[in-house]
Amino acid sequence: MRVLVTGGGGFLGRAVCARLVAAGHQVRSLSRSRHPELAALGVRQRSVDLRDRQAVADAITGCEAVVHCAAKAGAWGPDAEFRAVNVRGTEHVIRGCLDNGVRRLVFTSSPSVVHAGRDLEGVDESVPYARRFPAAYPRTKAVAERLVLAADSPRLATVVLRPHLIWGPGDPHFLPRVLAAARAGRLRLVGGEGKRVDTIYLDNAAEAHVLALDRLEPAAPICGRAYFLSQGDPRSPGELLNALLAAAGLPPETRRIPPLAARAAAAVLETAYRAARVRAEPPLTRLVAAQLGTSHWFDISAARRDLGYRPRVSTEEGLRRLAAYLAAGPAPAEGR
Fold it and tell me: Is the Cβ–Cβ distance between 287 and 73 less than 8 Å?
């Protein structure tokens, strides 16, 4: 198929593009800038801002399917900026699909749309959306996800994927922040060892998107549904963080703070940053404090059954690959 990947230059988007090319699809990328890695794959690139409705529609012209990975991510920032990209941008993608006769739309969402700050232990897709959110990112992703699910029809088949905490070589977001905090002596574990969280290795997340696209067509069983994706291997936040530190050759972190103290500190920091009109992200936010201090792992039976998804790269193998990647060059710089 002729497939457009929004955010094709991003961490997940590049991996999805590579998988699609390997599967024989003709791939086009929509990103704000051009990327040499995509050019090397033979991916046609369009430099487009999701907020530009007409430019998005033009980029979709001639495609048969869209994989919508692009989003404004992060635990901090003005609501208006997140709404403009995550909500309005998704509206533009849906409209562009309908106007151009595109029949398939795969949307990358996040399990954070159901995380209200309390433990989520082995829940499936029947768990409701959170009523309140600690940050603009999960709030706007929940709105966008609803838009995509509501758009499913005989004209446009849609499916939503919720990969949880994607990690792996080339991560420009999560890993650099963890390593920077550890090197600066600012990293702390939150709460005790009783909590568990899910993650997903990059290659597994990318493969799930291709599996979903292969099975997506009007009236297919996966249409209008959302699916959790993970390693199927929940572990304690301390174990996961220290595994990442070990991959980077750093010592383990053992210092802990109580969850209530973490949330209180995050609230104070957010208030101070807003009052001072500081655009930089605080050292700790309410979203990060909630994620570090609660369980959030998911039943991925539906993805296994309906998508044929299997986490082919185990957590241990992923960590070995990550360690080799980090040993081969400088630590990745933080970026968006």
Answer: no
Q: Are 147 and 88 in contact (CB under 8 A)?
A: no
How many Cα atoms are found within 13 Å in the side-chain-facing hemisphere of 294?
A: 19
Q: Tell me whether strands 256-257 and 166-167 are parallel, antiparallel or unpaired.
A: unpaired
Entry pTM? 0.93
Phi then psi dihedrals of residue 4, to 5 deg: -100, 130
Domain boundaries, the chain: 2-171+198-233+297-314
Would the pLDDT of 332 be above 60?
Answer: no
Q: DSSP assignment of 236-254, as one string?
A: -HHHHHHHHHHHTT-PPP-
**pLDDT average, residue stretch 245-253:** 96
Q: How far apart are CA 68 and CA 332, in angstroms?
A: 25
For residue range 94-109, list pLDDT tens digits in order: 999 999 999 999 999 9
For 2-171+198-233+297-314, which CATH superfamily applies? NAD(P)-binding Rossmann-like Domain (3.40.50.720)
Exposed e or buried b for every residue in 253-290, given b needs 16+ CB within 10 A? beeebebeebbebbeebbeebeeeeeeebbebbbbbbb
Q: Tens digit of pLDDT for each residue in 20-77?
A: 999 999 999 999 999 999 999 999 999 999 999 999 999 999 999 999 999 999 888 8
22: Cα separation from own chain's centroid: 22
Element containing residue 44 per DSSP (H, E): strand 44-47
pLDDT, the chain, mean: 94
Residue 282 tokens, joined:
């605080």
Is there a catalytic annotation at residue 325? no
> In sequence order, which ranges of 42-121 are alpha helices (DSSP H)?
53-60, 79-82, 89-99
pLDDT at 221: 95
The catalytic residue among 137, 201, 227, 309 is 137
